[in-house]
Amino acid sequence: MQTLSLQVRHPNAVYDAAFSPDGKLLATASLDNTAKIWDLQTGEELHTLRGHGDGVCGVFFLAEGKRLATASLDKSLRIWDVGSGSGLATMSGHQQYIECMAGSPDRKLLASGGYDNVVRVWDAEAAEQKFVLSGHGDAIYSVAFSADSKLLASGSYDQSLLLWGAETGEKLGPLDGHDGTVEGIAFSADGKLFATASGDGRIRLGSVASRVVTTELEGHPNYAKCVAFSPNGSLLASACRDGELRLWNAKTHDNLATINVHSNSVYSVSFSPDGKQLVSASFDRTIKVWNVEQLLT
Amino acid sequence: MLNIYDKSSTNDFCDGVSRRQFLQIGGLAMGGLALPQLLQAEASTGRKSQKSIIMIFLTGGPPHQDMVDLKMDAPAEIRGEFRPINTNVPGIDLCELMPRLSQMTDKLGVIRSLVGSEGRHSAFQSWTGWTTANQPAGGRPSLGSSVSKLQGISVPGMPAFVNLNPKMRGGSWNDPGQAGYAGQAHAPFTPNQGSGGANLELKGITLDTLGDRRALSSRLDRLKREADADGSLAGLDAFNEQAFGILTSSKLVDALDFEQEDSKLRDRYGRGDNVYAGYGDAGILLNDYFLAARRLVEAGVRVVTLSYGRWDWHGRPHGTNFDNARDHIPALDVGLSALIEDLERRDMLDDTSIVVWGEFGRTPRINKKGGRDHWPRVACAMMAGGGIRGGQLIGATNRLGEHATERPVHFQEVFATLYHNIGIDVNYAAINDLNGRPRYLVDHNKYQPLRELL
Fold this sequence. Notes:
The structure holds two protein chains of two kinds. Chain A is mainly β. Helix content of chain A is 1%, strand content 55%. Chain A has one domain: YVTN repeat-like/Quinoprotein amine dehydrogenase (Methylamine Dehydrogenase, Chain H). Chain A has one helix spanning 292-295; strands at 4-9, 14-19, 25-30, 35-39, 45-49, 56-62, 67-72, 76-81, 87-92, 98-103, 109-114, 118-123, 128-134, 140-145, 151-156, 161-165, 171-174, 182-187, 193-198, 203-207, 212-217, 224-229, 235-240, 244-249, 255-260, 266-271, 277-282, 286-291. The radius of gyration of chain A is 17 Å and the shape is globular. Chain B has one domain. Helices cover 29% and strands 17% of the residues of chain B. In chain B, α2 crosses α9 (238-247) and α8 packs antiparallel against α10 (250-256). Chain A binds chain B through residues 11-13, 31-33, 54-55, 57, 73, 97-99, 114-115, 139, 157, 222, 241-242, 263-265, 283-285, and chain B through 81, 273-275, 277-280, 316-320, 322-323, 326-327, 330, 368.
């Protein structure tokens, strides 16, 4: 079995990649102003989604994989029909560039953040804005929903990490303990842990209940860009700006694998729904799908 | 102009490669000029030369301190993410992202102290050597237009000046090089910009025919032969006849068709992506155009210019300066080293001057978005070929890369060197402006060819 099970590319930097809920499709977002949908089995490019007026920075499957949400530096989010590749809706509201987007695991909500220093929460079905969340003092670099879709975390250039009620928009308080920009956030599947990737190169783990960082994982030589828990919560993946990917034991915090996978910053890592595959998306224009078991051997 | 009938709505080959580069040979844009005028102007010059210039414009202003002048003693907020590497010339180091060029630095002139930038986002100064202020009547001509005016064409059927830019969204960059007071006859051929209108049309040559490039060449040659034979050209004046000759020249078609090259050589050049780089408003990072430039000068074009990539790296969310550097600089390293190597292998390097530069440098201090902003006080350039003495490091900047501390080099000194290499003495050569007043190519009382490179 190959360590690398698929490699595809955009003609410009790639900012995000997401698996469909059934694990059969992959969506990718690029600075080339498009998102693409790929057949994971064959590597065939099924659709190129054109319409955004600037780079696309986020992708997330909705409605059991029948629709796709994209977020763009053009300050808008769009909803697309996956089957036909046609645009269905556009959501506007951000006053500055969008930097990040996440979707709730129940596929009902989207959250986006950017250079207007606010997080906007969207009803994905109605394609309408639900909340505008203010509290950060600078640009929002990362957003993530908890596994039960009830919590939302947002991280900023100002080194703050805030926790919100996803369904209420209520500010629940800060998650303290960061000394660098908060570039990536993830929640564990059981909802007990959060993890962050930070501009100081560290991966931090913390308790959602106590809202404090409890563990710092060192090892990345520089700017950590992204982090993801495996679906069963046993693994943590992280990557940094010069292409290094690390796998960690989420419980013992042991570094299980370190591999240079890209020639430029890795902007996104994500596990497939069955946890067997991991996708990495990079500014080097490539998207690579890895066999997790092989990475660990 | 000559247009080739496009009966379909697509611009792509089935292999995904755009037909645009190839198709537009039939729609050569010439700054709105009718080709006969161009040739009329050429007829006024007699000098023939096989010297050529390739200018690669790094659209947006490359970061000097991340390419040829790394500041490892500077604090972290200035130093950046990269390290220098040794080159094959003791005493000269380059960025680690340029491993290939570092092994041919003995062929390079590395300028660390380029000064005199106007500070505008514009190709104008890099194309002409002059700022936009106080231009003489008609406007300053670009390098290629001046050479075209003074030297004319080198090979029948080939234009003197070709600019390979695609049409760019960024208005100030979307300038293939103005002809100015040299006259529109000396505007560049811009085969990748598309054109409007049609003065000539090749009936019967369709996209289907274009599927086979050699078939097109054959058709063009046959068309010309038929036109000659049946006297169709008899009624045209000499310049229209020559225009027809250039536009139907299979030599020009062939020169632009880099896909004729061996696949391994294209790989060595690095190929690249035929989409707008970075934010999408500037050049494309298509190394195939370096190969096309070589083919054009080999076929007799005197000056080839192109805008390469997008180097205006202000930072997130369009990638940090360093993300973009890791994207662009290795591509430049591959393409430029391949071009130098290829020219040398063909014994053309001494006759072909190459210059690589942008409109200004970048701020020493890294901004909060991981970018570097505009810095007109100092910039960098690389030169090669044209008979220059390689392995030369010219100039220096202070510890933080803020300003030149040794041997400041003005844009016009680089121009004087290029003119010298192509056989034009800037102390004597002049072109009349629209008021009839002779204008020198550079301010020769101040600026002469770089003695370090001659």
